[in-house]
Amino acid sequence: MNTESISYTNVTEALKMASGYPEKIVRAKRMEREYNETVELMFNEESGVSFIPVPTAQDVDRFDTRAKETNDPDDITRAYLIRDRFDHYEGEKMAHIDHRILGSQLRTKLADGTVTRADVKAAERYAKNNPSPDNIGLYTQIKRAAGAI
Questions:
Q1: What pLDDT is stored for residue 5 in this prediction?
Q2: What percentage of the chain carries pLDDT values higher than 90?
Q3: How far separated are the first and last CA of the chain, in Å rounded?
Q4: For labelling alongside 96, which of 47, 66, 110, 135 has CA 20 to 30 A away?
Q5: Rounded to 5 degrees, what are φ and ψ at 123?
Q6: 71: left (phi over 0), alpha (psi -120 to 50) or beta
Q7: Rounded CA gap, 115 and 148, in Å?
Q8: Between 117-129 and 8-17, two packed helices, what is the crossing angle to 10 degrees?
Q9: CB 117: neighbour CB atoms within 10 A?
Q10: Which of residues 94 and 32 earns the better pLDDT score?
Q11: Over the stretch 88-135, which tens digit does the pLDDT of each residue have?
Q12: Structure confidence at residue 47 as a pLDDT band (50, 70, 90)
């Protein structure tokens, strides 16, 4: 099983960014379904292992240790899924700070007139993650400014 394509962070990001785009919604829902099917396959009564939706560092260590001891592909996949989930929630703890910094940087670039196409994508993500009238307006202004490039 290729665990590199399975990422809870990618699934949640795809679901956030999909709103308003039917094709993206379908793709994001497919990703979510595949992720959930993988979790159900790896964590069931047969495997004798329960899924932990919000794992702790101790849970990650426990799954990593078991994967190293058994060297079983299923245990390795389970360890990856638990670590991925842990990393996602650890990243979420600092997300509000990152969003504030990004918003400030985007406003500065807009004021300086140094907006790039990459800033448009960042502004879209910023507006979708924090959908306030100000942030949506910022996205619109950056999109217009980048269109003049």
A1: 62
A2: 59
A3: 44
A4: 110
A5: -65, -35
A6: left
A7: 10
A8: 90
A9: 11
A10: 32
A11: 988 887 777 777 888 999 999 999 989 888 899 889 888 988 889 999
A12: confident
Q: What is the residue whose two structure tokens read 């700070």?
A: 97
Euclidean distance between CA atoms 128 and 149, whole angstroms: 24
Give the tokens for residue 129: 């993650």
Residues in the chain, how many?
149
How many Cβ atoms sit within 10 Å of the Cβ of residue 90? Answer: 10
For residue 109, what are its two tokens?
A: 């670039």
- Please, is 132 exposed, middle or buried when counting C-beta atoms within 10 Å of its C-beta (0-12, 13-18, 19+)? exposed
Whole-angstrom distance, CA of residue 109 vs CA of residue 143: 12
Structure token digits, residue 115: 């907006």
User: DSSP assignment of 31-88, as one string?
Assistant: HHHHHHHHHHHHSSTTTT----SS--HHHHHHHHHHHHHH--HHHHHHHHHHHHHHHH
- Indicate the DSSP class of residue 3: G
Query: What is the number of other CB atoms lying within 10 angstroms of the CB of residue 49?
Result: 16
Tokens 């595949």 -> residue: 34
